[in-house]
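@channel anyone free to eyeball this complex?
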Amino acid sequence: MRRLVQPGAALQPRRLLEWAAPVSDLRVTLTGGQDLLRGLVAALAGKGVAHAAVQIVAAEIERMAYLTGAEDPSGERVATYGAPTWLEGPVTLLGANGILGPGPDGDTLLHCHAVVVDAEGRLHGGHLPPGDVLLGSGGAVALVTPLREAAFAASYDSETNYPLFQPTKLPA
Amino acid sequence: MSEAATFEEGKLGRIAVVRLRPNEDLVGAVEAACGEHGLSHAVVRSAVGSLVDAVLEAGDRVIQVPGPGIEILTLAGEVRPDAGGRPRAELRGTIADGKAQVYGGRFRRGANPICITLELVLQEWLPA
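replying in thread with the prediction:
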């Protein structure tokens, strides 16, 4: 198993875990014509949900971009994102996992990766950039698990030289 | 008479908010995190992250995907105790490499090092 040397010193512990309390899940339906991630973040903000685990179980997409990984030519990090790949719809989402929490600037961020199939039946997948996934008329459905007592919040990670979601205890 | 289906009654319990740091093995580190925190049965609720390289199993095939920066697109599976009572993770899902090729299968233990991070939410399964 190949291991990469990260730009910063290895941080401990190597596995972080915080316990969150179970609450009722939410099934969310988004109408077409809006951005998938921004629409979902806004809808959940309206319900007071800023920390969650997300599964997007269906989405019909009119136009979208996704990003895949690449080596970082600057050497400042071991990997970065390459140029976006754009797909014209209809694109069908097959599955997506997401983490919702406060980003490095305090705004709520939905970190989401998805696998989709394009109009010719080809599979694609990667990181979804907010603002670049326009829903078609079929909209989207997500199953959201709000997190209480503990959740993810982004902070600078000196080992990888990225701001990253970290498990964090939440105030009661 | 052999049973065509067996049932285990139970309910979902606490939620574990987990991060794995770089170079940890995906399957082994999920099992280690569960063992360290007394989580014997769990299901994956969501996961977002990346791998240095990936090795997936599909039937008799072993799919080796060189990275770095393999994106984990979807992750599903569960943690159950083995015969010795240690947590054992069965994880499967889809990934994309740097050329945007998508692959799927079961993640091989000891062969899928985390690249930048894995953000993972597990939910405890409490057998009745």
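from a first look: Residues 43 and 110 of chain A are 12 Å apart (CA to CA).
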